[in-house]
Write a structure and sequence with these properties.
By secondary structure, the chain is of the alpha/beta class. Helices cover 23% and strands 31% of the residues. The protein contains seven helices and 14 strands. Helix 7 links the parallel strand 12 and strand 13. The protein is globular and about 55 Å long. The N and C termini lie close together (5 Å). The structure holds zinc ion (2 copies).
Amino acid sequence: MKITFLGTGVGIPQAGRVQSGLIMEISGKPVLFDCGCGVLGRIQESGYEHTDIETIFLTHLHLDHVGDVLALLKANWLMGKTAMRIFGPKGTKEWFEQMISVYDYLEGRFEVDIVEVEAGESFLLDDPECDCKVSTAPGVHSITSLTYRVEHNGKVVVYAGDTEPCIPVFELADGADLLIHECSFPLNFEMTNHTTPDMFSQMLEKTPLNVKQLYLLHLYPHMQGHEEEALEHIKGNFKGDVRIATDLLKIEV
Ligand SMILES: [Zn+2]
Ligand SMILES: [Zn+2]
C-alpha cells in the first residue's frame, strides 16, 4: 500500500504542516483519511487528482480533521464529479446536513453516501475491485475519535485519530506493518486527550506494541525543535522503526 501524508499539523497554522489528512492508495485508488484545512491543496500538490477521491474516512468531527470536506466536494462538483462516500463516527450525518444547509447554492449538488461507524466494527469495503477490510477501535479524546485498521493485499496499516495512547488502539494495531499515531506535544507537556512521547512510552511499558513501523503526526507548534527528543524517548521502549511524518511524504508498506 502507498501512503501519502498530506497534512501532519493541527488547528494552529505552522510552516510546512497543514491540518490532518492522508491518502492510502488501495487497488490503485486514493482513499482519503481525514480532510482538515489545507488538505485539498495538498491533494493537488501530492500528484493525485481530487476528482479521483471517491471515499473519505473521518476519524472524528473536530474542525482540523474535517475543515476541507466541503471544499473538496465543491472542487469535485466544479469538475463535474458529484459522488462521494464518507465513513465517520456517529454524528457524521447530522454534521454534514447542518454544514451543507448554510450553503443554499450547494444543497442537492452532491450525492454523498454517509456511513456511520461504531468503534469495534469491522467491515469489507464493498468495492468489487478492492479486497480491503477495515476495523475500528475507540481512541481517548474529547469527542468520539476512531482508529482505522486497513488490511489490503496482505499489508496492514493503522491510522489512529486524535487520542491518548490507549490499549484499544495498541490492540487494534497488533501485527500491523505501519501504525500512524499522533504525538501532539513534546516530552513532559501536561496534557490529556492527546499524546506526548512520555505518555506513549508509559503505554509501551504496560502494553507491548507489535508493529513494524511507527509514524508520528498531528504535531502542535510546541513540538518544533523537540522532534528528535521525542523519537529518542520512544525508541527506548519500541523496537520497530519510528519516524516523524512530514507533509507530502510518500511511503510504501
Ligand atoms: Zn481532535
Ligand atoms: Zn486534531
